[in-house]
Amino acid sequence: MSQKKQFSVKFKMFQHDEVIIFASTMAQSRFFLTAFLLLLSGWVAVGLGLNDSASNWIHHFSNHTIDNFFIHFSWLAEWLLIILAILTVFYINYKRGLVMGIGLGIQSIFVAIIKNYFNAPRPIEAKFFTLRHIENLEIHHWQSFPSGHTAVAFFCMGLMATSIPRLQKSIVWGVACAIFAAGIGYSRIYLGQHFLFDVCTGGTIALLFLQVSIYVSKRLDYGV
Length: 224
What we know:
about 220 residues; mainly alpha; Vanadium-containing Chloroperoxidase, domain 1; globular; disordered N terminus
């Protein structure tokens, strides 16, 4: 067999295996389907030109109690979710945990590079709408795009949804994890730290990195 034909056969096998792994991941967890639909609804709003108006509505649909809740809820994506997700996967399968930890680390570097490259203005600087004063909240001014908190939330919750054996096929668990991740993204808009576009981008990046990490883990035979 010629080298060209050998390459063609190997490439087709690679594509076939990749599709099987992607499909099995989607079938095992409702997280990906729910997360995809939630992000798609956000992208549709952005595509319809509602980025600013939707962000403005979310930010001002508020009260003092919800302010305090989302300040603390948003904080979960800074360290607690990362530690909880990685430790859970390490406990179940330390080799898979290592792959996933590396995947999350690379994702974080990737997001940081984009943030620094674009250095996009946050709502307070963009001034597309007037920000409310929220007590005990530090408002950031730059590096709005994409939302790092949202990226962390979708990656970590997806990791939890697909890594715990007894819960992998649970519809309730998968949907709950996706809604929780989307809730972190919502909180970033609510607190006036990001636009809808930033949040959708962060979530989309996370799903891509999570799928790649799962693919690598399965190719190395480190379990589901």
